[in-house]
Amino acid sequence: MAEGSAVTYLVLVNSKSGGQDGPQLLEKFREMASQPPPQGLRGEVVSLTDPRPDGTGVLGPRPGLEKFKGTRNLRVIACGGDGTVGWVLSEIDNVNWSEQGKPPIAIIPLGTGNDLSRSLYWGGRYKDKPIQKVLHDVEMANIEPMDRWKLDLTAQDDGEKHSKARDDIPPQIRVFNNYFSMGIDAHIALQFHNARNANSDKFTSRTRNLLFYGLEGGKDLVVHKWRHLMDNVKIVCTLLDGSRVDLTERLKNYGAHALLFLNIRSYSGGTRPWKQKAGVQSSNDGLVEVIAMDNVDLALLNIGGTGESVCQAKRVEIETTRSVPMQVDGEPLLVNPFKLNIEFFNSANMLTKKKTSYPYRDPEVEEWAARKIQSSFKTYKNQKSINSANSVRVGQLS
User: Fold this and answer.
1) Rounded Cα distance, 205 and 192, in Å
2) 3-class DSSP state for residue 204?
3) DSSP string spanning 303-370?
4) How far is CA 51 from CA 12, 60, 78, 168, 324, in A?
5) CA distance 258 to 185
6) Under a CB-based contact definition with an 8 Å cutoff, are residues 202 and 293 in contact?
7) Given this model, what pLDDT does residue 198 score?
8) How many angstroms separate the CA atoms of 153 and 169, rounded?
9) Angle, to 10 degrees, between the axis of helix 21-33 and the axis of helix 131-140?
10) What average pLDDT does this structure show over 333-360?
11) Cβ(14)–Cβ(21) under 8 Å?
12) pLDDT given for residue 359 in this prediction
C-alpha cells in the first residue's frame, strides 16, 4: 500500500455494534495494525467501549483524537452505527485541532439503519470486505463538508404535560447530523426503545426489530394515534431568501402525523422521503428539508414512497402545547410543551466513497472479488429463472 503510506488512519471501533461484526472487525484492524507499513496500517486502532484506565466509564473517541490532533493527512474511520458517528463528530468538536483543521471521517457501517453511511455511499452494513480494500477506499474517498444542526429548546410552563416526559433535550443529542423528527415515527421509535429496555433478550436480531416496527406502524393505520399532531404544534420556517412562512395550517390540512427535518438523503434504513422535484437535496447547502408524513406515507416509505415535501429552510421555529414524542438521529424521547429553534451549528468533513479499483495484487482481495462476482451471478440466474417461470404461467393463463 505504497501510495497510502502517507495517510495516517485513526480507526475507532464500537465493538458492541452489529452483533459479532464489531468484535471481528476490531480483530482484523488490530491484526493489520500489528504489521509495519506499507503492508500494515499506519496509525492506531481504538476500541471505543474499552474501559478507561481509571475505571470511570468507557474510553470513547477523545483520547485517540487528542493523540493525533497535530498529525497531517489524518483520516478517521468510524466503525459502528449512526450513533457512533455522531459520538465521534461531537468529540471532534471538543478537540483543539492544529492548522490542518478537523480530520475527515469515513464510515464502516455496523448494525442497522446507517442512514449517514448510505448517504455517503459506504453502504448499509459491512460484511466481509478485506481491510486492505477498505483502507484503499478511505484513502481515495472525496472530502465533502456536511451541515450539522443545533436544537435550542426552551420548556413551556403552560400546556398538557406527561408524567414520563422530560423538559429538555439531553446535551449529547442537542446537535443532529441526519434528521430530527416528531410525531408518529418518533412514537414508534420510543415504543421500541422502551420495549427493548424492558425485555432486551427479545430484541437480539435485526429481523425481530424490523418486525416490531412493522407491527407498530401497521397498528397506527387503524388507530391513527397522532392524526391530530398539528392541533398542538405551530411551525414557522425561514427560507433561503430570508422570508418567514407559517406552515401550521398547510400541515394541518395535509393531516400530518409526523414532521421530519432531514439533513441527508437517507432516512429510516435507506428510504428517500424527499421528492427531488421539490428541490435539489444537499447536505452542505445550509438548508434542512422539511417533510410532512401521514401514517400511510410512513407505511409506504420502504417500497419507494415519499412524504409531502414542504420546503427547504435555513431556520425552523416550533412551538407545542402538549407533550410530543421526538427523535434526534434515531434517539427517541418524550418532551413536555416547548419552544424549539433549529439552526445551523457547524460543518463536518466527511469522506464520500468513490468507485475505485484496487491497484495491488492481494490474494485476500482477489478471493473476495471472486466471491462477490459468483454471488451476483447466482442471484442473476435465480432471478432469471423466476421471471421465466412467471412468464410461462402468464402465457398459460392467457
Assistant:
1) 13
2) coil
3) GT---EEEEEESEEEEEESB-EEEEETTEEEEE-SEEEEEEEEEEEEEEEP------S--HHHHHHHH
4) 14, 9, 18, 29, 36
5) 6
6) no
7) 65
8) 7
9) 80
10) 89
11) no
12) 53
The DSSP bridge partners found for residue 333 are: 326
Residue pLDDT, tens place only, 240-254:
999 999 999 999 999
Helices (H), the chain: 21-33, 62-67, 82-93, 115-119, 131-140, 184-198, 206-223, 248-254, 295-300, 363-397
DSSP β-bridge partners for residue 109: 80
Cβ(263)–Cβ(288) below 8 Å: yes
CB atoms under 10 Å from CB of 215, counted, come to 10
Q: Which residue has the cell 474501559?
A: 51
Determine how many CB atoms are found less than 10 A away from the CB of residue 40: 14
- Residue 397: burial class (beta carbons within 10 Å; 0-12, 13-18, 19+): exposed
pTM for the model = 0.83
19-to-15, 60, 269, 381 alpha-carbon distances in Å? 8, 19, 17, 31
User: Identity (one letter) of the amino acid at 347?
Assistant: S
Q: How far apart are CA 173 and CA 163, in angstroms?
A: 22
Check if the beta carbon of residue 309 is closer than 8 Å to that of residue 279. yes
Query: How does 119-132 read in b/e, with b if 16+ C-beta sit within 10 Å?
Result: bbebbbbbeebbbb
CA atoms within 13 A on the CB side of 29: 25
Contact 293, 302 (CB under 8 A): no
Backbone CA torsion sign across 201, 206, 209, 211: negative
pLDDT for res 1: 39
Pairing of the two strands 233-238 and 331-335: unpaired
Quote the CA–CA distance of 344 and 170 in Å, as a whole number: 18
Q: Is 236 helix (H, G, I), strand (E, B) or coil?
A: strand
Q: Write down the mean pLDDT value for the chain.
A: 86
Q: Could you tell me which residues come within 8 angstroms of residue 151 by beta carbon, excluding any fewer than 6 positions away?
A: 169, 173, 174, 175, 176, 180, 328, 340, 341, 342
Q: Tens of pLDDT along 96-130?
A: 999 989 999 999 999 778 999 999 999 999 988 89
